[in-house]
Write a structure and sequence with these properties.
OxRdtase_Mopterin-bd_dom; five-stranded mixed sheet; 203 residues; OxRdtase_Mopterin-bd_sf; globular; Sulfite oxidase-like oxidoreductase; mainly beta; 3 helices
Length: 203
């Protein structure tokens, strides 16, 4: 599968401390990109599970997820296709809250995020703990649009945005790394924007 190496856009130097190398500020825009067809999810049938190497596998319905303590992220997001968006606000629940209920086993060091479409992406456990990741359903105070992963997506804003899996349904804890969809197709295993970890072979 071909790899898109980025949009052409105006690179704005006004905020060099917040703009990772090779990125441009998309301003008020938010490009819509996806590797699969956008699904129509019925929230009454949707569920979110945390399983694999955990002491207590968990599953939450839409209503049960919304009953958990809420959490909001305010900050920037960055896409491997070279756009960045400043000052975003996402609301949902911290992944820490879900993992606290599931109790990861000591040997769990990696996570595979699964979407209802079959999309997957892999992450070190340390990249979704300690207040670094959320399961979100609101953007700027409104329900998350379908094209951006609504009604619910993973949010891991310190990594390139393909790691923030749209239409999330499952977090699978593992004791070893295993490549997800884009990682099998040439993207970097981790995806740190500040290190420009875009593709396999990047530092």
């Amino acid at each position: 599968m071909p790899i898109t190496r980025g949009f052409l856009g105006k690179r704005r130097p006004a905020r060099p401390d917040r703009l990772p190398p090779g990125q441009y500020d998309t301003g008020s825009g938010w490009p819509t990109l996806t590797a699969e067809a956008t699904p129509n999810l019925d929230v009454d049938k949707w569920s979110m599970s945390v399983d694999g190497l955990v002491a207590s596998p968990q599953s939450w319905s839409w209503r049960e997820m919304h009953a958990l303590p809420g959490s909001t992220y305010f900050g920037d997001i960055h896409c491997v296709t070279t756009w960045s968006k400043f000052d975003t606000t996402f609301t949902g629940v911290s992944v820490d809250t879900l993992l606290e209920a599931a109790q990861p086993r000591p040997e769990a060091t990696f996570v595979m995020a699964h979407s209802t479409t079959g999309y997957t992406t892999n992450l070190p456990l340390e990249d979704i703990t300690g207040g670094k990741a959320w399961v979100v359903w609101e953007f700027d105070g409104k329900p998350l649009a379908k094209g951006h992963g609504g009604p619910v997506r993973l949010l891991v804003p310190h990594l390139y945005f393909w790691k923030s899996a749209k239409w999330i349904t499952r977090l699978e804890l593992m004791d070893r790394d295993r490549p997800g969809f884009w990682e099998q197709n040439g993207y970097h295993d981790r995806g740190d924007p500040w290190l420009e970890q875009r593709y396999q072979g990047d530092p």
